[in-house]
Specification:
It is a single chain. The protein is an alpha+beta fold. 51% of the residues lie in helices and 14% in strands. The radius of gyration is 26 Å and the shape is elongated. The two termini are 35 Å apart.
């Protein structure tokens, strides 16, 4: 089998195999790029009173417990804290994807909203399907995409190289 034929076959089958996972990565990647523009994807950040947080962890937990939707009863129910000194807020993300934004000065709840961007991120890296899917699914898709890029570059350049060689050989005979 000629290299050109093998290259075209590889390019075609690799394209078919990675079409759906790549489409998922492209769509979720676009959504992640614009997530801050749409409150339905990621709640907008509020502004607090002061830029230096002055509340303790007990006040943060108490504020989180006061929000029923978040279902926070202890620190085990909290996924992460995001302290934004420049905005004067502390974001509390519960394990159930609810986000609570509190003032860093007085622990007042400023906003409560469901955060969908984490779900989109888990689709993007395929961990939504299984925790290790990013290795057994997305890694091969990434390698296949690199292979597609290389074979596509070859398929694109070959006609130009042949044309250049014909032109060079033609000049040699004259």
């Amino acid at each position: 089998m000629k290299f050109s034929s093998f290259n075209r076959t590889t390019h075609k089958w690799a394209s078919i195999i990675i079409a759906l996972p790549l489409l998922l990565v492209i769509i979720t990647g676009i959504l992640l790029l614009v997530r801050k523009e749409f409150a339905a994807l990621q709640p907008p950040s509020q502004k607090g009173i002061a830029t230096i947080p002055s509340i303790g962890f007990e006040q943060i937990l108490s504020a989180a417990k006061s929000v029923k939707e978040a279902e926070v009863h202890s620190w085990e129910d909290v996924d992460r804290l995001d302290v934004r000194p420049s905005k004067g807020i502390i974001k509390i993300r519960a394990n159930n994807s609810w986000e609570i934004q509190i003032d860093g000065q007085n622990a007042q709840v400023l906003q409560v909203a469901y955060r969908r961007s984490e779900w989109i991120e888990s689709l993007h890296d395929a961990t939504y399907f299984q925790d290790s899917a990013n290795l057994w699914l997305m890694l091969p898709v990434g390698i296949a995409l690199l292979l597609l890029w290389l074979t596509g570059l070859y398929l694109f350049c070959v006609p130009y190289v042949k044309k250049w060689q014909r032109k060079k050989n033609k000049q040699w005979y004259y």
